[in-house]
Design brief:
454 residues; 10 helices; globular; alpha+beta; 12% strand; Four Helix Bundle (Hemerythrin (Met), subunit A); three-stranded antiparallel β-sheet; 2 domains
């Protein structure tokens, strides 16, 4: 693979120019800031202070921690740089709400975040209001040169907060799942759809020497750069996500009991943790039920399977006589299908908070269904740097690069991803065994059509 223009630095210049042009006046930038920040508070609004304090496992953070951490981000990376006479709102918050930035000093242990009962949810709200007022003042008083310098940090702060909006929902879903009273985060969703998605179809993709990565137009994270060339053999991609019904067939065929389908590490997890169904499924009197943010309900066979690990996705693909796509195959297929520019689907703006059934295949339209939204889709690609990647200098350089080990890439977004945050080139990543994330499965194949469960 070889790197091509734009370089990360050139692309960053383009991001600044695009953002300055899109906001026009500082009032538009402030309106964007207010909208992002207010949405986080709306997500937390249904939760009691007690709900916001619980940490149900080490990978989950309390809701109030998410609210405080994204505020710490703006205080640390924007106000500390640009506010005259800067002083932190509370010195100890820099220790409590630093996530993983080694260059910024010590931080509180991640698995113990649920032990921090103080500051409480209301005090975190006061912290947020204080920082919001100060950020607005800094941006309102900035001249164009200062805005140009600060804008990359502000934009990164927006998308960082949107990442945590998604994580906030994933985390509270797990917190509420541990409560035997089966509390509901949000009321019943609108109708998901009654139509069966139909049999899985296959889309042929020519392959060849393709370009992968962000083009440099608009915002992207540094791990989406630089754009580079990669060779792909011809392949096929399933036209929709794997459904609960198809997963039940895998389970009925002893998929969780057949070691030959599993990678060794995955099989070890199956045995050690007793996996026998997706993460939020429970069996009652011979019937399967699924925990959702709208409550616990019978498993719907037409919905995409969700909350499965990379190991499970890979085992299902083996059982189906298929494989998982690489991230380059996924991205190239979406581009050639004409769905790279307009990112639409069952994202968080639908407020379903859950995957929907795939819509019927449209004659003459895009061949791939459920590309953006519903579930993050596991790929077979390890999370490594693109050729020519180099992280930015300073603490911001810790944002992505140092995590490029022992993780797998997911693509597409999910029903908890804020609109405007999903991109075709977005590289999400989780460890192989992660199941609490809203992740699903799209199959790939390199030859003749396959049949699920053959």
């Amino acid at each position: 693979m070889t790197a091509t223009d734009p370089s990360p630095d050139t692309a960053l210049d383009g991001v600044v120019d695009d953002a300055l042009g899109s906001y026009g006046a500082v009032d538009a930038l402030l309106a964007r800031y207010d909208a992002v920040r207010a949405h986080t508070e709306r997500l937390a609004e249904p939760l009691s202070p007690e709900d916001q304090t619980v940490q149900s496992m080490p990978d989950v953070s309390p809701t109030k921690w998410h609210r405080a951490h994204v505020t710490w981000f703006f205080e640390t990376f924007l106000l500390a740089d640009a506010e005259p006479g800067f002083a932190p709102y509370e010195d100890r918050y820099w220790f409590l709400f630093n996530s993983y930035y080694e260059s910024l000093g010590p931080r509180y242990s991640r698995p113990d975040r649920g032990l921090v009962t103080r500051p409480g949810a209301h005090e975190v709200g006061a912290f947020r209001r204080n920082v919001d007022e100060r950020v607005r003042a800094v941006l309102a008083d900035a001249d164009e040169g200062t805005l140009r310098r600060l804008l990359p940090t502000v934009e990164l702060g927006f998308h960082h907060e949107q990442q945590h909006q998604e994580l906030l929902l994933m985390d509270i879903k797990h917190v509420l799942s541990r409560n035997p009273m089966e509390p509901v985060y949000a009321g019943a969703p609108g109708p998901l759809a009654a139509a069966d998605p139909g049999p899985m179809g296959w889309v042929d993709v020519e392959g060849g020497l393709v370009e992968v990565g962000h083009t440099g137009d608009g915002f992207c994270f540094d791990n989406e750069l630089p754009r580079h060339r990669q060779w792909l053999e011809p392949y096929r991609l399933a036209d929709r996500l794997v459904t609960n019904g198809e997963w039940m067939a895998f389970m009925a065929d002893d998929g969780y009991a057949r070691h030959e389908l599993w990678l060794s590490d995955g099989w070890g997890r199956v045995k050690a943790e007793g996996w026998r169904a997706p993460f939020y499924w429970t069996e009652r009197d011979g019937a399967w039920f699924e925990h959702t943010l709208h409550g616990t309900r019978p498993v719907d066979p037409t919905l995409p399977v969700a909350h499965v690990s990379f190991y499970e996705a890979d085992a299902f693909a083996s059982w189906a006589g298929a494989r998982l796509p690489s991230e380059a195959e996924w991205e190239h297929a979406v581009v050639t299908d004409g769905q790279a520019e307009v990112v639409a689907g069952n994202l968080a703006d639908t407020a379903t908070w859950h995957p929907r059934p795939a819509a019927p295949a449209a004659a003459g339209g895009p061949r791939l269904r459920q590309v953006h939204g519903d579930c993050w889709e596991w790929t077979s690609s390890a999370y490594h740097a693109y050729p020519g990647f180099h992280p930015p200098e300073g603490a911001i350089g810790e944002y992505n690069g140092k995590f490029m080990s022992n993780q797998m890439v997911l693509r597409g977004g999910c029903a908890l991803t804020p609109p405007g945050h999903a991109r075709t080139t977005y590289r999400n990543f989780f460890p192989h065994a992660s199941r609490w994330a809203l992740s699903g499965v799209r199959l790939a194949d390199g030859g003749a059509p396959v049949g699920v469960g053959r």
